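Bump. Still looking for phosphoglucomutase (alpha-D-glucose-1,6-bisphosphate-dependent) structure tokens.
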Amino acid sequence: MTLSTIKKGPFEGQKPGTSGLRKKTRVFMEPGYLECFVQSTFNAIGGVAGKSLVIGGDGRFYNDKAIQIILKMAAANGAALAVVGQGGLLSTPAVSHLIRKRKTDGGLILSASHNPGGIDEDFGIKYNVANGGPAPESVTARMFDETLKITEYRTIDAPDIALGDLGLHQIGEMQVEIIDPVADYAALMETLFDFGKIKALFAGGFMMRFDAMHAVTGPYAKAILEDRLGAPAGTVINAVPSEDFGGGHPDPNPVWAKALMEEMMSPTAPDFGAASDGDGDRNMIVGRGSYVTPSDSLAVLAANAHLAPAYEAGLAGVARSMPTSAASDLVAQKLGINSFETPTGWKFFGNLLDAGKVTLCGEESAGTGSDHVREKDGLWAVLLWLNILAQRKQSVADILVDHWAEYGRNYYSRHDYEAVPTEAANALMAHLEAQFDSLPGTQWSGLSVRAADSFSYHDPVDGSVSENQGLRISFEGGARAVLRLSGTGTEGATLRVYLEQYAGPDADNSLTAEAALASVRAAVIEITAMQSHIGRTAPDVRT
Ligand code: G16
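Sorry for the wait, here they are.
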């Protein structure tokens, strides 16, 4: 085996976004592209000599090749151990758990999450630190700096590792341990929830459908829901991970999980439906005839978490990303616990979790999680819902109605405008920002603006400040709109418009979200001069 140093780099545009580096797969396949990013990551963390890493991905096209490349580079850089999921598979929450359990120095996750996979679709890589969470901004900034100055990377000339063979392997001086991707994660879930109660629920005829969307959660969901909890065979559908996710978007929302939504809205719907994304960290929850928005899901979980063994003693607090609805704040207020508002990106929850300030976190982008790992966790959210359903013995719809009757309802929807030319999207945002001083007090579509600003986050744990984290307009009467540009897309800009309207416990809580949000939506379209900036006012995706 020969060590070599290959002259290459730098490559433009290797700036990590909301969740690592995401690009078209063919970009990652350019000779040296992945290698330079990985070497830059190693350089940014002071090298990997003597260190241990967890490595795995969601099984999308190029996953296995990328893992072979990374293993050889880690060996050439002196790493001591790589823990790798069998077949190169590991869900994002499973990586987070393994980093913590095995006390490794960090991990690398190969995934572009909910983005489609394939040679002409998307690929991605993310570095997680020793607490199991995504690298914080201070680390991603160092990584980016390294990508700007890199001129060479190190690798080793060695045969590929048989990723399917469990057990110990060797590359140069580095050990590679291939592990069952599901076992440790499933064991962790068993410590958090009342598996006996959930088992009894299924034994009593409770029916569920879980759509794994041809992505990484399939094997985890089958092992936990069907094998351990006794859900009938066939409960988990699309359970075999495929490298192009069966040609679909592994994005658990009503648009991309359409077949599941149709089944759940039909007269023969099962009691409970759920879906997860490419790398298993997102979730969608839907009851018979009743879709639960991710913001409401976080609030319901916070209000009922004490029904599951892990959270029996109560929660330290709840954190949500700024664009997520304020529904969970109302629960925190009632429980008398902390609530925090962070920028979009799971990495911002890490400090709050590590400091014990919060127990649950969630985002409007279908992410919910707790202090059991440092990533959002799709299957965990599904199991917590199941545990709550097993205890409350009510339907999802009834739980929601009760929740709104107690706390009021935060009507909520996110509208995405995809593949907008970057300049047009920037111009729209600049146009809005330029009006901040003059907007308060003005009327738009019957709503009066109360305040408008750009969100900055002051991390209460390490004091760091993150600016420009989204533009907010709040209106008198409980309406709010947030606009930001996505940090996870790979083509042009994706403009996200987040709409919210609060209706108190005594108000009409039975409207459709579309009807309840019509005024705030119209106001945003007007204030931003949307038609003239981006040439349309109808979004591509509404969640
Ligand atoms: C990532 C982040 C989330 C974020 C989401 C959307 O999720 O981890 O925190 O909410 O992207 O981000 P954006 O609005 O910038 O596209 P994932 O599941 O894609 O890793």
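The chain has three domains: 2-181, 185-407, 409-542.

Edit: fixed formatting.
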